Amino acid sequence: MQLYKNYYQELFNYGVRIARNEELTRDSIHDLFVHLWSKDSFEGISNPKPYLLKSLRYIIIDGLKEDSLMSGHIELPDVALSTEDIQINSEINEASSLKIKSALTKLTNRQKEVVYLRFYNGLDYAEIAEITGISNQSVRNLFSKAIRELRNQMLPIVVLSTLLHVLTN
How far apart are the first and last CA of the chain? Predict the structure, then answer.
């Protein structure tokens, strides 16, 4: 029960980003813990967070497959990073927010997922690799490309913001 209390909110936040459906996410979290409790399959797991996130991801994707009656391969759902998720300097105006949104749309779904797991869940590359089912090096490459893309897109805004800050202080 303590495990459920400790990780429910993080699991819910991550699940909603994948499923874009709160009910499916709640059901999936419930299914995950029912499975864990019925099978006692949690013994020997030293770090529960990545294990739970990975398991929830698979349950949600299976649920999405069932809901859409798709056969074969399913595309990874879009893991959106909204401007609310990104802490920006209060001096950056509406144009900056639009620039951030524009930069995020240029990232692939996998890049968005890796950035989310790294920054918002605090996971390391090995944990992200375990959750997403891709190699550690692929996670590093995705993260590096995502950050490079965001940096390239945001550099003019950062320079402008810094200049405004210096001029007004």
Answer: 52
Nearest to 19 by CA among 70, 71, 76: 76
What is the Cβ-side half-sphere exposure of residue 156, based on CA atoms within 13 angstroms? 8
For 3, residues 6+ apart whose C-beta sits below 8 A from its C-beta are 33, 36, 42, 48, 52
Task: Give the whole-angstrom CA distance, residue 106 versus residue 25.
Answer: 27
Residues sharing a CB contact under 8 Å with residue 166, sequence separation 6 or more, in sequence order: none
Query: Residue 78's closest CA among 101, 52, 120, 110?
Result: 110
pLDDT digits (tens, 9 = 90+) for 90-148: 444 455 666 767 777 889 999 989 988 988 888 999 999 999 999 999 999 999 999 88
Q: Please state the pTM of the whole predicted model.
A: 0.52
Helices 109-119 & 125-132, crossing angle to 10 degrees? 130
At position 64, the amino acid (one-letter code) is L
C-alpha torsion 20→12→61→134, nearest 10: 110
- For 60, phi then psi, to 5°, come to -65, -45
Identify the sign of the CA torsion 53, 22, 113, 124: negative
